[in-house]
Every structure is written in structure tokens, then in C-alpha cells.
């Protein structure tokens, strides 16, 4: 590994960056947060101060200034969804590697523009969950054959948020539950089946004022008798779960998406010995900041020329699944991926 750290620039003062991702990057031994950019310089300075980076990180009053800084190696892009592709391309063309929040785009056609990035740029769509040991362990168990044939994956991800000023509730810039949280069970299904769905069908309820999808039930067909189903909602009580169901056993990840970085988590492995699950085997997963693990993997890809398992093509394939879900909503029938 090269004897240096990746110097990060944070693009915008978005809350996910302030509360989760930037502090996690700061904990990475391979990283240094060197700059923050906002269209409001005062906000950039306030962000730096809140994270204790005064005197350590530069503040910029425009995104273009950050891209032009030759000392910055990588950009973290947590802008609203409609700005993911254009700002990622702008950063990449300036020679910066890019970690971009999910979903990468508003549709697959837009995501395909990312193929224009220079080939030496490391790009990753920020699904931090793929780096948590509980996901890796669940996949390992599925691969081992302990579950028999993996036949179904079932997920739930919900929260309650009705503030119309929140970007998650602004339909014209990519708000709504499917983009925000439905993408996680889609990613989980692709990660655990290690294949792509062929078609999707969805039942979607939209908020009459905000026009965002507030409740969706989705079924994905992975072929060969394999299927994935999930519920996501932005106007329901907070809940999350993920279950893998095989012919001889099942795995349940108790906190699959928002695993706390400072507390252990657990997965349950059940061979159906008792209907109430009382004879399930519990495996404890030590505390892990999945955002830090994501930053570490991203930095290693740059420093060691160690390619990430997922890149531009994976992000495009993911968007094709979301496109099919929205197409099914419109037609009320199955839509091909």
C-alpha cells in the first residue's frame, strides 16, 4: 500500500455527510478530510467547525473550486439525487475519484452517462451495507449450502417523514421511498442471489400532495423459482428487516440497513426446528462502522489499485431494476428489467 492517505473533499453540507459519512471517513486510517464545499461559504465553514476540522480542512464557496483543488484525491457526493450524475462526472473529469450516494441516478439512461468517466477514476455507489460483516456472513452462509437452495429474500424498510421541505419528499429531484430506501432491499437481493432479476411488479401508493411514493410493495423475479419481495414506506412506523429463505434453513439479519456503528448486531440461522424460532442459532457480529469500512475499501482501490467488486456497470444494472419497478407502477403489470 502506498504510504499516504487519500485526501477527501466533501461536496455539500448534506446531513447524511455531516452525521454519518464524513465522521466515518475521518475514522479511516487511509483517509484525511481536507476540504468541504458548499454554495454557501458560511455553511462550509460551519460544517468544518462542527466536525472539529477548523484549521485542518479548507472551506470552498462553490463546487467548482473544490474540483479545481489539485491536492484533493477523492470526492464524496451526497447531493440530491438529480445531481448525482452531473456532479460525479464533473469531479471525475477534474481527475477526482468519486464516492457517490445512492441511488446513482433517476433512471438507467442517466446512469449510463457515467461510462464517460476516465478509465483511471475509481467510482463507487455508496451502498455501505455491502461492507458490513453481517451481510458478508449472510452471503457466506447462503453460499455454504447450509440453507439448501436459496429460494426467497424478504425485506422491510420504513420510516415516517411528512416534511415537504425535506429532499426525500420532493418528487422532482428524486424523492420518494423507492429511491431512498427501496434501493436497499433491491441491493440486498442482488448481493445475496448474486444475480440480476428478470422482471418486477409493484403496487405503489403516492402522497396526493407531494406526489412521492409513500408505500410500495415490490416483487422481483430472479428466475429459476427464486424471488425477492419487499415493502418500503416513508409514511409508516420505522422498521427494518431482511430474511433469506432456503429449502433447508433461513437467515434473518435483525438490523440490516442502519446497523449501529458502536453496538454489536446479530443474525439468526434457523433450520425450522421450532415454529417460533426458539431453536434458532444466533451469531453475534462485533460493532462495525459500515461507512468506515466503505471508505477503507474505496481508498484501497485507489492506493493499491485493488478494484472494487462494484462499479459503474453495477450501478447501471441497479437502476434498471428501479426503472422496471416504476414501469410496473404505471402499467399495473410485470415489467422487464
Structure, briefly:
Helices cover 31% and strands 28% of the residues. With 337 residues, it is of the alpha/beta class.
Total number of strands: 15
Number of domains: 2
Outline, from the CA principal axes?
Answer: globular
The unreliable regions are: none
**Can you tell me the CATH superfamily of the largest domain?**
Dihydrodipicolinate Reductase, domain 2
CATH architecture of the largest domain: 2-Layer Sandwich
Number of helices: 9
Features:
Rossmann fold, 9-stranded mixed sheet, single chain, alpha/beta, about 325 residues
Written description of the protein model:
The chain has about 325 residues and is an alpha/beta fold. It is about 30% helix and about 30% strand. It has 2 domains: about 5-130 and about 295-305, Rossmann fold (3-Layer(aba) Sandwich); about 135-285 and about 320-335, Dihydrodipicolinate Reductase, domain 2 (2-Layer Sandwich), CATH 3.30.360. It has 9 helices and 15 strands. The strands form 2 sheets. A 9-stranded mixed β-sheet has the order 14-13-12-11-7-10-9-8-15. It has a 6-stranded parallel β-sheet with strand order 3-2-1-4-5-6, sandwiched between helices. Helix 2 links the parallel strand 2 and strand 3 (about 60). Helix 1 packs across helix 8 (about 290-305) and helix 6 (about 135-145) crosses helix 7. The protein starts with 5 loop residues before the first strand and ends with a strand.
Amino acid at each position: 500500500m502506498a504510504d499516504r492517505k487519500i485526501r477527501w473533499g466533501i461536496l455539500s453540507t448534506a446531513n447524511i455527510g455531516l452525521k454519518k459519512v464524513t465522521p466515518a471517513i475521518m475514522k479511516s486510517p487511509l483517509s484525511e478530510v481536507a476540504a468541504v464545499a458548499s454554495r454557501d461559504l458560511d455553511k462550509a465553514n460551519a460544517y468544518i467547525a462542527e466536525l472539529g476540522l477548523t484549521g485542518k480542512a479548507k472551506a470552498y464557496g462553490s463546487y467548482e473550486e473544490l474540483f479545481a483543488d489539485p491536492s484533493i484525491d477523492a470526492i464524496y457526493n451526497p447531493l440530491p439525487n438529480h445531481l448525482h450524475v452531473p456532479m460525479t462526472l464533473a469531479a471525475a473529469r477534474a481527475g477526482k475519484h468519486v464516492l457517490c450516494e445512492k441511488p446513482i441516478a433517476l433512471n438507467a439512461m442517466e446512469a449510463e452517462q457515467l461510462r464517460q468517466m476516465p478509465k483511471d477514476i475509481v467510482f463507487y455507489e455508496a451502498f455501505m451495507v455491502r461492507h458490513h460483516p453481517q451481510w458478508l456472513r449472510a452471503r457466506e452462509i447462503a453460499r455454504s449450502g447450509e440453507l439448501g437452495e436459496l429460494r426467497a429474500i424478504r425485506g422491510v424498510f420504513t420510516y415516517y417523514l411528512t416534511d415537504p421541505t425535506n429532499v426525500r419528499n420532493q418528487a422532482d429531484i428524486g424523492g420518494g421511498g423507492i429511491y431512498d430506501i427501496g434501493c436497499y432491499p433491491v441491493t440486498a437481493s442482488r448481493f445475496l442471489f448474486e444475480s440480476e432479476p428478470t422482471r418486477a411488479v409493484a403496487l405503489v401508493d403516492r402522497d396526493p400532495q407531494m406526489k412521492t411514493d409513500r408505500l410500495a410493495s415490490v416483487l422481483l423475479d430472479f428466475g429459476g423459482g427464486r424471488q425477492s419481495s419487499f415493502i418500503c414506506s416513508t409514511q409508516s412506523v420505522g422498521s427494518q428487516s431482511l430474511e433469506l429463505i432456503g429449502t433447508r434453513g433461513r437467515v434473518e439479519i435483525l438490523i440490516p440497513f442502519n446497523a449501529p456503528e458502536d453496538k454489536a448486531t446479530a443474525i439468526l440461522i434457523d433450520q425450522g426446528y421450532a415454529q417460533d424460532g426458539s431453536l434458532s442459532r444466533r451469531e453475534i457480529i462485533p460493532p462495525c462502522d459500515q461507512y468506515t469500512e466503505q471508505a477503507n475499501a474505496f481508498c484501497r482501490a485507489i492506493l493499491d489499485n485493488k478494484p472494487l467488486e462494484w462499479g459503474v456497470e453495477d450501478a447501471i444494472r441497479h437502476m434498471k431494476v428501479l426503472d422496471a419497478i416504476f414501469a410496473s407502477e404505471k402499467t399495473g403489470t410485470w415489467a422487464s428489467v
